[in-house]
Amino acid sequence: MAKADRYSPSSSPLYERFPLKYTNHRILDVVVSLLLASLLLYRLLHLHHHGIAWLIALSCESWFAFFWLLAVSTKWTPAEFKTYPERLSERVEERGLPAVDMFVTTADPVLEPPIITVNTVLSLMAVDYPVSKLACYVSDDGCSPLTYYSLVEASKFARLWVPFCKKYNVHVRAPFRYFSVAEVSSGNGESSEFRQECEKMKEEYGKLCCKIEEATGKQPSSWDVTYSGDLAAFAHVERRNHPTIIKVIWENKYDTWAGEEGLPHLVYISREKHPEHPHHYRAGAMNVLTRVSGVMTNAPLMLNMDCDMYANNPLIVRYAMCVLLDARREEGFVQFPQSFYGALKDDPFGNQLVVLLQFVGAGISGIQGAFYGGTGCFHRRKVIYGLCPVDNTGEFSEKELLRIFGTSIEFAESAGLALKGHTNSQTNTSRGRLLDSVEVANQVAGCNYESSSNWGKPNIGWQYGSTTEDVLTGLGIHTRGWSSVMCNPYPVAFLGCAPTGGPASLTQQKRWATGLLEILISGRNPLISVFTAKLQFRQCLAYLWINNNSNFLSSAIPSSLLIASSTTPISSRSCKIQESTS
Ligand SMILES: O=c1ccn([C@@H]2O[C@H](COP(=O)(O)OP(=O)(O)O[C@H]3O[C@H](CO)[C@@H](O)[C@H](O)[C@H]3O)[C@@H](O)[C@H]2O)c(=O)[nH]1
């Protein structure tokens, strides 16, 4: 039974918001703003004495001043959130904690090697949270037998790895990072028993890597010969033209409360693809994950992760719960910052997003809340299903649910429950039913399923129409009046790999800039939402700032690289060319 004061606003808070005082920054911002204003005034007053050159200069400076004001507004009232996971146990018993469905997306077994995805999945399966409340779903847009095979092998390794991490309170639960740091240590000292078990884990992880490497080396044509049975579904599939493949790799079959025993569910999904149907990239994958998990476990909370980011802090789910269970205000989502390992010295391409996190992140935390950054984010399922904070009752008729969410009666039922705020710990329907729901899951993962529904349209699911579906989806949530929280615990919640080269950075920046521009020129422009919906004015300015900033960066990087290379002495340039061609 949940503890009596579970959601009581009078007891000590699970999280708090602290305004930050960046006084020197503010003074500097005001001084620069005044200088800009005087420059513009000077230009205006003397415009008639000069020709077209001054007019061009005036328009450029006006644009810069506008851009500057957007930045100042975004950073003006910075704030940070502090969470208290240690207070969670005072509010709610372990068995009363809500369930969480964790989504991992992967799209290409060559660019995103399965061992990376495997590490992400292992780190999530090992988080400190009751296992019977967790389910991990992997979406594979590459429809790769190698990815599936790797996950099956990983689930066998997880049966050793997860108990080991929990027994010794291991801090880093992605094995590739754990075994690569110099001093491998648990949080509980280093007994000889620990050393022995650690060696064993290292050996087992080595075996897992070997198996995956061996399978990677095989020719694709030999896959369907070598792997029959479980892998038969992958025989003769084309990456962009294949039926849905859903495999329950591991089902936690405990019918009753099993505490920390066992492993979370692990489900592999490769949604149906057909050349005539748009698949909407990651947004499409996320919507399929949402529907499949809806008919399987229907957890009220969903975490989504890129395959190249792992959970670096085993308490992440508890940190998110501090915000999502607090009674004072319902937040739409909790975003953890994107941090990266293996950074280049001095971060020459700005891939670490330091300014974005430290200043802009803190700035928007003081307005309506963090942008949705695509990975490392916990959403409420009902928010993704389009609920507004005011109509929180979530009562819909079955007919309405079928119209909005497509023709599956089972999915409509699950959506009805989610919209009413039910959790599967309340309805207790998920244990042992995953295999039974595979048929319905196949139906909702079909490429035709969305055709007569609202998926991807404003308010329902991950939004279509922009390559930055994360920003668009987050904007939609803010537009409905929800706020969000940036949670930044120590150690950092998630770590991933960022591009380390100029061209890769540029491609990424260009993709983001294109996606943001698509939002700006669409009907979902934040400026429109200020007047027609509930987006706060300064939050709208922040969205405009990130848009401008991204477009500015994507055009500034090539020119700065050009300047940098043209100022590099000829002798050193020729040395570099020699190095790269040797
Ligand atoms: O058709 C696709 C394309 C991509 N992905 C997955 O989406 C994630 C992000 O794709 P990536 O190409 O790595 O984009 P990035 O620019 O690195 O990602 C950032 O920017 C994206 C667009 O804003 C967000 O979706 C991401 O969450 C965010 O980390 C990866 O896990 C991919 O496997 C799919 O599942 N299906």
From TrEMBL:
Subcellular location, record wording: Endomembrane system
Keyword Cell wall biogenesis/degradation assigned: yes
Membrane topology: Multi-pass membrane protein
Gene3D superfamilies documented for this protein: Spore Coat Polysaccharide Biosynthesis Protein SpsA, Chain A
Binding site for UDP-alpha-D-glucose: 112, 141
Transmembrane segments: 27-45, 51-72
Active-site residue list: 141, 470
Gene Ontology molecular functions: cellulose synthase (UDP-forming) activity
Signal peptide coordinates: none
Gene Ontology terms describing biological process: cell wall organization; cellulose biosynthetic process
Source taxon at top rank: Eukaryota
Keywords assigned by UniProt, alphabetized: Cell wall biogenesis/degradation, Glycosyltransferase, Membrane, Transferase, Transmembrane, Transmembrane helix
One of the record's GO cellular component terms: membrane
Protein name, as recorded: Cellulose synthase-like protein H1
